[in-house]
Amino acid sequence: MKKYVKQTVGVCIAMLMAVSAGEYSGTLVQAAENQETVEETAPVYEAGNVAQKEDGTVYYWEYDGSNFEGSAALGYYKPIVGETNKLMMQSPSGEKVMIGDMEGGGSLVLTDSSLIFYEKPVDQIGGYEICSIDQNSGQTQTYGLGRIEASDGKKIICSDTANHSIDSIDAETGERMKLVDGSFLASHDGLIYYQPVEADSGAATKGKVSLAVVDAQGGQQKTLCTTEPDLYADDFQGTASIVSMVFKDEYIYFSYGSYEGTGAVYAGGKIMKVKKDGTEAEIVAGMDGLRAPVFSVSEDGMVVSQSIDEMYDYINSMDKYFTRNGSIYFMNENGEPVELVTQADYASVGSVACGQFNDNEAVTIQFAEKIGNKVYMLLDHGVIDETSRVGWRTGYARVNSAMLSKDLDTGTVETVFSY
Asked: Of 319, 44, 256, whose CA–CA distance to 158 is shortest?
């Protein structure tokens, strides 16, 4: 599920006031435009609810029943502000050590030093503060509001609360600087791909998007391509976004379109192909009818996609997995969906299929992430609760939850923790 929600003006104002008043321990500066870099580009790893070192050591949050709402529409249980969680480290041999017990949860990134960066929820509408803990001393530090996106070990890439700009934080100095205006999409080959803010909102609602790239230091910034505002005849949908990306040899493929209505239904879009240097941009699917968001690229470069009029697999923007018939599918490097988790794998949490809602109970996914040969997932089992219904959105009261890990080589499923 996409982690950003629409924010109120009050939250944005509070963010600006916190920055101007210096209410965090980092320093905010403006990055030099198109800054040149002479250092070799380091790998950039995207943030996740589970982080893993090269030696196989795993870091994750261990939650309990007091950390989330007891009931919620569609079983989306929000974190409780002010509650503490245990940040855990598990060695490759299985030994577990608590790094800290503090207000925090959600995404993590590791650094080349002993610092671990994490998020702390500050309100019930999607606001988070970026923090770090030194796993040797236990000392914590804050860096202002926003969401963690990625890290190259020395620089932490983060977004502002509204997801309209991308910053970097120097892990050594704590200095925070603005890189670009736009929304983070993905990291690949040490570079950060993002969607710049579209100045023409009318064109954005009709399908105009841009794909751009920058490195962690703010250099190598370039807009690779911009689409035409020709997807829709009206403006009943939201602004268009890049929904899914596939990096294939020297090319980047991406689907783009808008979501509409209270159910956030994908309105259909097109698929673009562009070289990594920004040349040879062309539409490769959607000219004869709008397409669904998920697509794949075959070895010969052909795009395989579904019509928006067919039954298609639903994802939010830049999701890496989706559910189908109770199974969890992840997209591989070609964009092809691969079934990695079946209903039998999470039967210990609940006996109903995840991703499906009925009038009795539901199993919902807080996160599912593939790291190496393992899939980590946090699932909630809830029963019908009319008091938490919001319009057509069925309400559920949480009964039990568990974080599971599945070894893809052996098929073995283990319970990391449950509550």
From this structure: 44
Q: Which residue in the block uniquely carries the two structure tokens 């702390």?
A: 120
Helix (H, G, I), strand (E, B) or coil at 204: helix
Structure tokens at 230: 């020709």
Structure tokens belonging to residue 406:
């599945």
Q: How many CB atoms lie within 10 A of CB 79?
A: 22
Predicted confidence (pLDDT) per residue in 151-204, tens digit:
999 999 999 988 899 999 999 999 999 999 999 999 999 999 999 999 999 999
Element (H, E) at 9: helix 9-20
- Pair of tokens at residue 315: 């994802």
Query: Which H or E run includes 398?
Result: strand 395-407
Report the C-alpha gap between 302 and 253 in whole angstroms: 11
Indicate the DSSP class of residue 40. P
Q: Enter the pTM of the model.
A: 0.88
Question: What is the torsional sign of CA 84, 369, 50, 379?
Answer: positive
Pairing relation of β-strands 191-195 and 183-188? antiparallel
Percent helix, strand and coil across the chain, each to the nearest 5:
5, 50, 45
| Mean pLDDT score of the chain | 90
> Facing residues of 130 across strands?
119
d(Cα 69, Cα 67) in Å, to the nearest integer? Answer: 7
